[in-house]
Amino acid sequence: MSDIPGSALILGGGIMGLSAAWAVARQGTAVRLVEQDPIPNPRGASHDHHRLIRHAYGPSLAYLRMVEAAHGAWDLLWAELGERLMVDADVLALASSPGGWLAESRAALRAEGHAVQDLGPAELARRFPALSPDGIADAFLAGRGGVLLADRILAALLRRCLALGVTVERARAAAVDPGHARLRLADGTWRKAELLLVAAGPWAPRLLPGLAGRVAASRQVTVFLEPPPGAREAWAAMPMLLDLSESGGFYLVPPVAGTPAKIGDHRFSCQGDAEDDRAATPAEAAAILALARPRLRDLGACRVLGARACYYEVEPRERILLEPLGDRAWVLTGTSGHGFKFGPLLGLGLARAMAAPALRAGLPGWAAGEAPPPAGLLPAA
Prior knowledge:
By secondary structure, this protein is of the alpha+beta class. The protein has helices at about 15-25, 60-80, 100-110, 120-125, 150-165, 205, 230-235, 280-290, 345-355, 365, and strands at about 5-10, 30-35, 50-55, 85-90, 90-95, 115-120, 140, 145-150, 165-170, 175, 180-185, 190, 195-200, 215-225, 240-245, 250-255, 260-265, 305-315, 320-325, 330-335.
């Protein structure tokens, strides 16, 4: 067991762990990444055809502003990868009652200078014939969103990390020793470095008892669809759809870049365990489709391609936790289903703070959406 000078040890090969490995390695630091499954990990919270990036964040100006910085981080990554693994998509937000998240998002977006177009039922029906306007009390359309091609991103990030000299070890962690920046693996051996990052997704609470009550594994079900015959092109051109019905909202991802359409539940179950089976039951799939049926005119003509469960690690207020575990270790967790968009940005922030320790105290508040980034953390726009 050697302690490599200037070394980093990262547990978890999802978007957070890979992004941190990329950002730290590009500074010249030796990085070892430990992941229990293949990358992309079919059991991981980051595994899927797509994730969304959008500015609408309710009243949270801090996270809204972070999205703009996140676009810059993705642009840097695209340049290094030599490909842009994102498809631009507008954001269509719907609500069955006025006020709430939608109204707060609209106000915040406009306060920050983002164009937001209000849509009444007649305009919704005209512009988006696949939707039923019945029961919609409020709606807006906003730009600058996108569909991130998640699994393709993870695979490309892995290739980039390997090219930068990152060592990737497939092994299961049995225990975390933050004080010594080390991991005990299931075979009894140890891995150690100068800095440890635990980015273990829904497994983090199992390894770090201090997260109990702060972060919970949450079983989330998604259903994948082939659009109605002859409608794939029209569906692919649709915006991402965020339906905020109080009786059970859902989101719809359009079938871009050859992927299926996807429908998922906005609500957190906060039930289950990271080791549970990822197969969704017919009842779970039916419940997701029932959420979308009042909004999608031709849902019955779609072909269901499959359904699966994934596990988020949910923080009650949906805050991302990037926190120190003593002097030599950090945990990055609580991404709550919305963190994927911030992966490269958080990785770059952590890497910068490694190089400039005075910045470290400002990381937790920034990642949690409670404070601006500390001066000097991010490159100038």
